Amino acid sequence: MNKRLKVFITIFFIGAGYAITYALPFVQHVFADPLAEGLNASYAQLGTLIAIYGIGNVIGAPIGGWLCDKFNHKTIYLLSLVGNGILCFLFAMNMNYKFAIAIWIGLAITGLFAYFPSHVKIVRLLGDEDNQGQVFGLAEAAGGVGSVIVNGIALFLFARAASNVGGIKYVSIGYGVASIVIAAILFFLIDSPEKVTDKKQSDVDKVKASDFIEVLKLPGTWYTGIAIFCVYSLYASLQSFTHYYTNVLGISATIAGGVAIVRTYVIRTFGAPLGGYVGDKIGSVSKAIGIAAAGAILTILAIMILPHSTPISIFIALTLLVSVFTYVGRANMFAVQSEVKIPEKFSATAAGITCAIGFSPDLFQYTLFGNWIDKYGNGGYKYIFIYTMAILAVGIVNAIFSIRYKKKVETQGNN
What we know:
- Helices cover 84% and strands 0% of the residues.
- The protein is mainly α and 415 residues long.
- The longest helix is centred in the C-terminal third of the chain and has 35 residues, at 380-414.
């Protein structure tokens, strides 16, 4: 098989694996009411499940990343997909809230402790150092396409059931089957560490416990983590735009929902590869993130200051533009670790640490935004927008320092 074609097919199924890994943990985003009914749980309790999952990211991902560098990352990756499938089956067989807590802890282990660091390492190894933006951009787009397919199949299975509870069981079983099938396909597509060009298993075995501290001390680890934090904060803020349009501008829920679908799936599919291409074309993924952050700031500022009488088409266009900037950032944020010269053999360790930093907004941002809305009503959106722009400003500064650090490391390497 042609190498480029194999890489493209591999990325597609990696995207499908990404979608299926996070389908059950965030199933309430699609089936909130049926899930609450099936577990006999309140919405607050469903939120607790997400919080449990988020805590698993902060605690488990750094250690899991080191293990993926220490041992065979392909094996860990595939086992995490199989484990995810087994947990889906178990959940379908015993749906109650107390058991769901145990399942969500298990999902945090398979999806965050084991899966994500190995995912980042595998994607990085699929490309060369000069096309990391494109590889990660395609992986991000593949995740979006995979989510559309997975959710479409889930809706089909749900509709076949005689009740809401039965529908959730069908959906969970479908997730489990898909997870194991994708693992089987990727077993043949993903190269083992010793087969990757210039990567020998002996290099993997050299990773020691002390290397975790070494990676933690690398400035590039923190530049990458902050880049992910800023981009992910923007991504998490996009949800507020839908509520802003319905609550403040009086746009119908149907229109707002349609914009959200385009923003989440269509823009992701095209914006992420474009962003990766731009990052590689200009020779710096950090520069691409900085440009995207600056563009997002200006666009959000325009949304804030435009009078409410402005034609709705203008607001929709601005929202979609913010989404483009978001996915330009998402396409490049994981590629920063390559730009700041983190050694490939530490890719998963660095990914675990940077994800714990970068995805930490899950622990507080939604609660913070909710408190502002509860306290200030529609005026709370002003604070949300200002907060988002402030975080993006940090992202711009971080991009500047990342570029300087890259030049410093390259200069030292040439001496």
